[in-house]
Amino acid sequence: MGRVWVVGSLNVDRPWRVERHPEVGETVVGSMLDPVPGGKGLNQSVAAARAGGDVALVGCVGDDDDGAWLRGVAADDHIDLGHLQADRDLPTGSALIVVAGDGANTVTVAGGANAAATWPDAVLHAGDVVCAQLEVPVEAVAAALLAAHDAGATSVLNPSPIGLGVALVPSADVVVVNEIEAAELAGFDGEPLAQAAAIRTGDQVVVVTLGPGGVVSSGPSGDHVVPAVPVHAVDTTGAGDCFLGVLAASLAAGTDLLPALERANAAAAIAVTRPGTVDAMPHAADLA
Prior knowledge:
By secondary structure, the chain is of the alpha/beta class. 28% of the residues lie in helices and 26% in strands. The chain has seven helices and 14 strands. Strands 6-5-1-9-10-11-12-13-14 form a nine-stranded mixed β-sheet, sandwiched between helices. Strands 2, 3, 4, 7 and 8 form a five-stranded mixed β-sheet that branches. Strand 7 and strand 8 (105-110) form a beta hairpin. The protein is globular, with a radius of gyration of 18 Å.
């Protein structure tokens, strides 16, 4: 089994509940819930670890109480924190998450110490999987993708939020995007498989997650369609991170692409039936 290296953000999520999201300029009444651990990097790490992966988390928190709390959360899932930095000048990242009655969510992030994350001088092996997104500096992600390429490891990139990091998309072995990101990267609306094919280059695999519509992918082995798992969604926050983490752990375990996609899809379906992010990530026994 290879190791999963997650390069990404750690945030304290501050969730709110509303009946529906407001229109621009509109005020709605909501309720503020207790803070919970989050951030794409932490979410993906926990998802990968609970799915059975040997996980190392690369990122940066503040040298503050929030940072200490998030370190403890990751340690509880036996995630290697040897490459997680603490910045004395920047606060730990924070996110405002608003969840509507139908489970749909919006997220606003203040990056804080995530902006100081760097890729370490780490030794990778051919069976490893490097999993990254763009809530940390583009330079850190670029260095991680290059290290994976040089070691013969597999790189998995979620280019979210879309910005300067889009230039890194061709450098990843596997690219995972949602419907909105797929349309933006492909340059057109329409059939997700056609968008995936338009995005991919060379031997790359492009995966498009469709929420309640399942998952599709396009790659050297052809096109794959993974049907949705019917569930009643309670909170979709972190579902994409759950998918990415479980996919990375499955690939690191040597699982072929299609069964890895199916396992990740099943995990995300479980996660949306539970409130929160980290707390919602399923364990390997849930996926058996």
